[in-house]
Design a protein that fits this description.
Layout: H1 9-27, E1 30-32, H2 39-50, E2 55-59, E3 68-74, E4 77-83, E5 89-93, E6 108-110, E7 113-115, E8 122-124, E9 129-131, H3 135-139, E10 155-159, E11 162-166, H4 174-178, H5 181-189, E12 196-198, E13 203-207, H6 211-220, H7 225-228, H8 230-234, E14 248-252, E15 258-262, H9 264-267, H10 279-282, H11 292-300, E16 303-308, E17 312-319, E18 328-340, E19 343-353, H12 358-371, H13 377-394, H14 396-400, E20 404-406, E21 423-425, H15 432-445, H16 453-462, H17 473-492
Antiparallel strand pairs: 1-20, 2-11, 3-4, 3-6, 4-5, 7-8, 8-9, 10-11, 12-19, 13-19, 14-15, 14-21, 15-16, 16-17, 17-18, 18-19
Bound molecules: FE2/S2 (inorganic) cluster (FES) and fe (ii) ion.
Fe (ii) ion (FE2) binds near residues 224, 228 and 229.
């Protein structure tokens, strides 16, 4: 079981040496293979990247009502993403403050109180401690609620309904942290005042591959499509797929945040501007919500694939929703969730514009699942090749030989005429977007500060947690739950 720990002096020296080696390799357009399956590097990534940055949690439409919650992860920790009884969105550590077991075992639900299954301590849905069974007999007096609430992520913010959290107080505001990538988010998700909504719960499955391989692929790898997805080019599943690599463009928004764009109307046919949205959806788009460059971009070479560092990716591309049907665009959000060295969970959500007709949403959901998700034809191809990289990362032979990977495609430089933020590349070939991802990785792996749990909790209270527990409705519910436990215990005694 991997937990955040300050590395021992030996570990710190090892990690620093690996990070130095990665940077020196990147300067030569190379990449050491061992970073894809290494116990100490993995532990350092959890501490230095996943506790120090904004991490994607979900979407507001997954928890529309007070008390709604879904289970998520930050690094290896399970967290509860919950809309509390005041409507505030919280991210709570799922471990009981009494003996540490997991409080919640459901993937989703609605509750005003979380009750621990071990001894029955109860917490309000904002994370505040609410009480414990046999209080007088067991503790002699009431415990101080301020000391025993669930750990709470001190920072939670949303962007177009997408919820991000950070375990660090020190992160800049979300929009500032994402920088120029917000401009791309706007172009993709802000075409209607009602925004987008989730079409169902996420699908989660385990892949024996490192989280970085999924993230870097979606950051800028169009080169693999003609080979990895060869079978889909053969059967004409998506017209023009075999030309995707040369027809792909690159948007680099800095800090390891990048998108691939496709001139889909040139690949497939003239109607496929605006990702190929049919008239029933595109007629509702409010184009005045975007600036001129965003409009020109989504009409001619819309962002189709992208990664926001560290582990959030996006995909919107036309695909058939069933055999012999014309492709329609789906919107897939995914998380490359680290679980252990060389192992990740792949989380995928299907989204659609809220204003789209329900019939279209149903088809778009199927289109997304047809290609991506545990049974998706593209997903099968990709995950197999990524699993191979994790095997190489663990190989003694590869390590002793100092095996390094190739990042040396010829580069043409960014388009000097580009009017938008960041940099635009006419050709995606060049692997510069993947390099930017690993440059950010190096930067984050050089951050050595440790976030202590006590600081997290204190910050959580300062950020809006209640100082004392009053007799609110949820406290009463919590006390009723405890009374129920006590009653059962009495019956057993
Ligand atoms: S471990 Fe949760 S109440 Fe004891
Ligand atoms: Fe792929």
């Amino acid at each position: 079981m991997h937990r955040y720990q300050s590395p021992s002096p030996d570990d710190a020296a090892y990690i620093d040496a690996v990070v130095d080696r990665v940077e020196a390799s990147l300067d030569e357009s190379l990449l050491p293979v061992d970073i894809f399956n290494d116990d100490r590097i993995f532990a350092a990534e959890m501490q230095r990247i996943f506790t120090k940055n904004w991490v994607f949690m979900g979407h507001e439409s997954e928890i529309p009502n007070k008390g709604d919650f879904v289970m998520r992860r930050i690094g290896v920790d399970r967290v509860i993403l919950v809309r509390d009884s005041t409507g505030t969105i919280r991210v709570l550590n799922n471990h009981c403050r009494h003996r540490g077991t997991e409080i919640c075992h459901e993937d989703s639900g609605n509750t005003s109180v979380f009750k621990c299954p071990y001894h029955g301590w109860a917490y309000k849905n904002d994370g505040d401690w609410a009480g414990a069974p046999l209080m007088k007999d067991a503790y002699g007096e009431k415990l101080d609620a301020r000391d025993w609430g669930l750990l709470r992520a001190p920072k939670v913010e949303t962007l177009f309904g997408f919820v991000f959290a950070s375990l660090s107080e020190d992160v800049p505001p979300l929009r500032e942290a994402l920088g120029d990538a917000v401009w791309a988010f706007e172009a993709i998700f802000n075409l209607h005042e009602d925004g987008v909504e989730v079409l169902g719960p996420p699908e989660v499955f385990t892949v024996k591959a490192d989280w970085k391989n999924g993230a870097e692929n979606f950051a800028g790898d169009a080169y693999h499509v003609g080979t990895t997805h060869y079978s889909n080019t053969l059967d004409g599943f998506i017209p023009g797929l075999n030309n995707v690599a040369v027809a792909a463009h690159g948007y680099d928004f800095g800090n390891g945040n990048s998108f691939i764009g496709h001139s889909i109307h040139e690949l497939i046919a003239p109607p496929f501007t605006l990702w190929g949205y049919p008239e029933e959806v595109r007629s509702q788009f409010q184009f005045d919500r975007l600036d001129d460059v965003q409009r020109e971009m989504i009409e001619n070479r819309p962002p189709t694939i992208g990664t926001i560092f560290p582990n959030l990716s996006y995909l919107r591309f036309p695909q058939p929703y069933k055999e012999n049907e014309w492709p329609i665009p789906f919107t897939n959000i995914r998380v490359w969730q680290p679980v252990a060295p060389g192992v990740m969970e792949l989380w995928t959500w299907e989204f659609e514009y809220t204003c789209a007709p329900q019939e279209y949403k149903d088809k778009a959901y199927l289109a997304g699942q047809y290609g991506f998700g545990s049974g998706g034809v593209f997903e099968q191809d990709d995950t197999v090749v990524w699993e191979g990289i994790a095997k190489a990362g663990k190989s003694s032979w590869a390590r002793e030989a100092g095996m390094r990977l190739h990042l040396r495609q010829k580069r043409n430089g960014p388009d000097p005429e580009w009017q938008g933020p960041g940099r635009y590349y006419e050709s995606i070939l060049g692997e510069y977007l993947q390099e930017e991802f690993y440059r950010r990785w190096v930067k984050e792996m050089r951050s050595h500060k440790t976030t202590q749990p006590a600081e997290i909790r204190a910050a959580g209270i300062a950020a809006g947690g209640a100082e004392t527990v009053g007799t609110t409705a949820s406290t009463e519910t919590a006390l009723a739950a405890i009374a129920e436990t006590e009653k059962k215990q009495g019956a057993l005694a």
